[in-house]
Amino acid sequence: MAVDTQETLASIMSLQTKIMKEQAAMVLSRQQAAAMPSKQQEQEPLSVRAAAFPEFGRLPAELRRLIWKMALPGRRVLEQADGVVAYPELCKKFRPPVIRAVCKEAWEVTEQNGLFVYGPELTASGGTWFNPKQDVIIIRNPGEDYPLGPLEDCRPEIIAVDRRYFEQDLNFERVLDVALQLKSCRRLIILLRTTPNLPYKKGAAPKLFSLQAEDVIWSFYADADEKPNDLFGEDDVSWKKFKDTIQANWDDQMRDSGRMDDIMKYGGLPVIEGMELIMCKEDEISRGF
After folding, report:
1. Axis-axis angle for helices 2-34, 61-70 (nearest 10)
2. Which of 44, 131, 210, 223 has its CA at a distance of 20 to 30 angstroms from the CA of residue 153?
């Protein structure tokens, strides 16, 4: 009986999430229409129809807020553009969630699950919507003085570094130092990224897919410049082997420095995960407005 109740509740929540997205699109459409000249409004096709659910306001506040939260965009990836500036521009920026325009309650939920980060002062970098708990920041060069730029003040919990950055032994320590300096960092993602997935194209956005322990991130037959580190000799490098190497290096650093007790006060070392980055078609929900 309990299982049936849970399935029913899940179905209701799924339906409400769909309705909220449609209502958000409807509100946005009306706002855009109000800004159009009357003649242009007459020519504009009716592409969004209202989805009525008059009983939504009678649901418990906790359930309504949960539905609003489920309607938010999923995890998004922010990457710094190449260059020599101290505060690099982002390769792709994201607008606030569309449900932010629906009502005060929805707006409050977005405030609890993200913020708008402006670009560095006196620069033209612009800003982006950012959720510190789920969005991923790809760090271009952990060895720089301010590797995260203005995003550092947002207390990000997930950072990512390309596997090729570990080519030099010293870089193992640099990545760990960045993660520990943040204090808010709970997860470090090591990226596997092929050449076709390096450039950004219109209508595409980076998505992350988990690596399995046996996945090969470098092969003997691949370009030697792609090898993560010479520690692996000429053997194929699996994700598990690479992860174990990073973890062992970090454990040695903590033991030699005597900092482990202090690190444990902030939750310990970040969890290491391996993911492949693939450029995928961008959906409207991820873009925001």
Report:
1. 70
2. 210
